[in-house]
Amino acid sequence: MDYYGGGPVGELWSHSSLGTSEPVPIAHFFRDFNLMPVLEQTALKQCRGRVLDIGCGAGSHCLYLQEAGLECTGLDQSREAVEVASRRGVGNVRCENIYEFEVGNFDTLLLLMNGAGIAGTLAGLRKLLLHLGGLLAPGGQILMDSSDLIYMFEEDADGGVWVPGNVAYYGEVSYRWEYKGHKGAEFPWLFVDLRTLKQEAGMLGFEATLVQEGPHYDYLVRLSRPAYEN
């Protein structure tokens, strides 16, 4: 709201349980299509029909889809984010937690900027996919991106990788935001490798198709349910 309102803008920092602290340019949340990473551009071009942008933030993806002529609903649990998205011109934006949102029949569910992360944990991914399945229209798709964090862990001489023993899955990370010296509450965030995502999705009846790989262990995937003949 500071950035969009033209007020004094402080530094935004991301602190993770992996021991990293990084500044995040606030302008990143307001970028247009030409400044988006290639996976986001591909995902937006793959959208069809009625679209639900989950975790829409300031609404950049919704604005692009609206201009492309698609019916798009933005969803975010932050009241301030929803207000900014609305001010920027997103026509339909809702302030709700995804698990409380039960209005279905969408042709595309969009989860970008490591959209799998909102699951929090690997067990949470099953819960998330199960809920998302109830929001899909027949023949609908889920477009989701994530990253494989295996590159961050040390490889031994035999090719094995040492990962922390205090987490159930190596892609389970926790974060805290810091802005103008104020730190928010810690929250879980999931990075899931493609093989594991395919396994989890398959157990719930989804078919996971790799759409595109990114430049650094990231990827875009499409989840859909196969159509069976009676």
How much of the sequence lies in strands comes to: 25-35%
Helical residues, percent: 10-25%
**Shape field:** globular
CATH architecture: 3-Layer(aba) Sandwich
CATH top-level class: Alpha Beta
Biggest sheet character:
7 strands, mixed
Mean pLDDT: 92
Supply database-style keywords.
230 residues; 7-stranded mixed sheet; Rossmann fold; single chain; alpha/beta
Task: Write a brief structural summary.
The chain has 230 residues and is α/β, with parallel strands linked by helices. It has helices at residues 2-5, 38-46, 60-67, 79-88, 122-133, 194-203, and strands at residues 12-16, 21-23, 50-54, 71-76, 93-95, 106-111, 136-147, 172-179, 182-183, 187-190, 207-213, 218-224.
Task: Walk me through this protein's architecture.
With 230 residues, the chain is of the alpha/beta class. It has helices spanning 2-5, 38-46, 60-67, 79-88, 122-133, 194-203, and strands at residues 12-16, 21-23, 50-54, 71-76, 93-95, 106-111, 136-147, 172-179, 182-183, 187-190, 207-213, 218-224. The protein is globular, with a radius of gyration of 18 Å. It has one domain (33-173, 188-224): Vaccinia Virus protein VP39 (Rossmann fold), CATH 3.40.50.150. The strands form 2 sheets. Strands 5-4-3-6-7-12-11 form a 7-stranded mixed β-sheet, with helices on both faces. Strands 1, 2, 8, 9 and 10 form a 5-stranded antiparallel β-sheet that branches. It starts with a helix and ends in a 6-residue tail after the last strand. It has 6 helices and 12 strands. Helix content is 23%, strand content 30%.
